[in-house]
Amino acid sequence: MHIPWRKVCGLRYIKEQPSKVFYKTDFEGEFIEVDCRSNSMKNRGRPKQTLIYKAYESTLPISEKKLKNLETMCKDLTIPKAYHNFYQALKNEQECSR
Asked: Can you tell which superkingdom this protein's organism belongs to (predicted)?
């Protein structure tokens, strides 16, 4: 079922019903029930496979100032060492235009 997100004014989640979400579009109205399981899960118990496509062919450049700030955060360990390779591989706008 389609949820009209722009009109939703209330959401409810009930712990005992984990596959359902309840919403309402006005403050006086009753909550409308939505079963979030896909049809394949309802019928066979297996989730439907979804293909995910890349939004960009390469990483997007960031500003020189932001890159320097991230490098500083890596040096003073504000960013944990486990993530340093990711941040060190980022390119700024000038490097990407070459």
From this structure: Eukaryota
